[in-house]
């Protein structure tokens, strides 16, 4: 594993309490700021999925996941179970469409290399790579994600997926923990998928 990534993990592991604000400070510091060269050995083609996910570190307390994104393809809207976290843009540009479940507001924001996105517990969101550069993001979640809900708005279905699945509809039924009744508020995301196959 890359020395800088190991140093980040060690720095997080010595924290008495994991606080998102402190994690952001770690990743934003000159000493620990990641760049594309630091993660190059871990990048893989997303193939048919919107992104490839490479788990860099996982414990009950937190996880780090590196994602390499397919150009101009949204992941499905999803939550992160009881987890919260940050997504750091290491390369490229991203559009993030998020629904706040508390006040039912929809936000559409774009982020560039060097930016970070806050991912809180009361959020459903969908992301996609925009522009010509390959989007690469590093995600920090605490606790490690479990019971993530994925919403297929085209087919009006939703399910809870296991930890091996990302924000796409599982091709392997073993990745589905439970089907749920489709929550119609998710139709707010429908326009994102009109032009996608």
UniProtKB/TrEMBL annotation:
The keyword Chaperone does not apply. GO terms for molecular function: iron ion binding; oxidoreductase activity, acting on single donors with incorporation of molecular oxygen, incorporation of two atoms of oxygen. This is Cysteine dioxygenase. CDD domains: cupin_CDO. The keyword Metal-binding applies. Keywords: Iron, Metal-binding. Belongs to the cysteine dioxygenase family. It comes from Spirobacillus cienkowskii. Transmembrane segments: none annotated. It holds the Pfam family CDO_I. Fe cation binds at residues 78, 80, 125.
